[in-house]
Amino acid sequence: xxxxxxxxxxxxxxxxxxxxxxxxxxxxxxxxxxxxxxxxxxxxxxxxxxxxxxxxxxxxxxxxxxxxxxxxxxxxxxxxxxxxxxxxxxxxxxxxxxxxxxxxxxxxxxxxxxxxxxxxxxxxxxxxxxxxxxxxxxxxxxxxxxxxxxxxxxxxxxxxxxxxxxxxxxxxxxxxxx
Length: 178
Description:
Layout lengths: L4 H14 L14 E2 H10 L6 H10 L5 E3 L5 E4 L19 E7 L3 H7 L9 E3 L3 H9 L4 E7 H6 L5 E2 L5 E3 L9
Helix pairs in contact: 1-3
């Protein structure tokens, strides 16, 4: 039976970012899972796919949500974890401006509290407004915040760039939002 790549991508996001225990999977502290073990446990839990299916989803994902280890034996989510992982990304100087998409219903709270990671480990920021708009639309009527990442960095805030190009930081205070 052919594997639906969208469903497989959603499944991989679920177990690699949020609930590895749902299929009895254990992630390393850096978020890696052995591919063969992942496939074995997923198949045993009723989600049937093989290595070729997994590699195809990784290669064709427009959002590049997953990374394969250099030795080809392990996989992890590039970012977006609600489980505690240490991705081991080095701090980097961000572009001067980054963007964050959200729903308009959250704007007032964000203007008071800033951007917080909510259920994730870090705040996700985009390089361009178009990406932020797509993210905002997933949550309702979209609103795009412009983030003074250069100003934040100058004040000592750390930024990290995930394997898929998403910028991460722990918190964006309201004074850095427009």
